[in-house]
């Protein structure tokens, strides 16, 4: 594959998951089309580039709208999911569909909260040799302070629990075809894209933008959904919570020693009723032992859990071989000097 700056324009697909987005969709399509048009004029992307709208089982006129735009606007493509599969699954469906048709794929929300004007910059970064370009919010001043707080807490918690996610990055990103090919090997049901993409690796970089308010319509992520999203993210990326159980168990066993000592002193001083000392000590000790056991069992369940995901063990980035037929080395003009 030749990635010389603009020498061979690449096909870009913009994947947009849409759930009940009839209010914003016309504007979204207009803005994305004009970006694509400009980039095609500059020969930055191939003329077969497209906007792939994924209708996630909307209950309003979203699909009808997509069909309406499909005829006159040659950028518009659509896929429709039979039921509401949720943002991550809709996005994944779109990515997998685009994988067969494009060299570069950008995912973006339908609500125009993410600045579409950085798309050309993302594509430039791709040409510089990056496989993943994360769109990162400069600030969250337009979010409500509540949303800001909950989101911030979420990122912190994820980091603590061992999930490597990009701070202030949602699902606005560019990925290359080969990243998507690796992504398709993740066969797990609970796919948390924000956590898995960094896990795959490959050269990555960031573009920064300020996030605006929703153009129209309302958020499809009320608090309840947000909490379950956070919980899903944590439990699908790490088994660290299980380790905490073992930790608590050890702490409780330790406390049982102190309680034992304390009860013994009380008994010596004659301040206690018959049986209190043994009762106090055993409560803490048994509790501690039980939690340690749960933690150990949890470790095994964690292992089973990881096995059932059948994740790829590695991601091949470059192959250097002598036989030219299998030489799949990817050359970047800037890295390898042309
Ligand atoms: N979305 C989806 N399926 C759902 C919920 C949301 O495809 O079940 C889409 C939605 O149309 C939007 C994106 O996911 O394009 C993000 O949703 P939203 O903007 O409501 O989330 P927020 O920005 O408030 O976190
Ligand atoms: Mg939004």
TrEMBL record:
Pfam families referenced in this protein's UniProt entry, alphabetically: Glycos_transf_2
Subcellular location per the Swiss-Prot or TrEMBL entry: Membrane
SUPFAM superfamilies membership: Nucleotide-diphospho-sugar transferases
Main location: membrane
Residue ranges annotated for the Glycosyltransferase 2-like domain, each copy included: 14-183
InterPro entries (alphabetical): Glyco_trans_2-like, Glycosyltransferase_2, Nucleotide-diphossugar_trans
GO cellular component terms given for this protein: plasma membrane
GO MF entry, a single one: glycosyltransferase activity
Membrane topology according to the record: Multi-pass membrane protein
This protein's UniProt keywords: Glycosyltransferase, Membrane, Transferase, Transmembrane, Transmembrane helix
Superkingdom field: Bacteria
Annotated transmembrane regions: 244-265, 277-301
CDD domains: DPM1_like_bac (cd04187)
Protein's recorded name: Glycosyltransferase
Organism (species): Heyndrickxia ginsengihumi
Lineage of source species: Bacteria, Bacillati, Bacillota, Bacilli, Bacillales
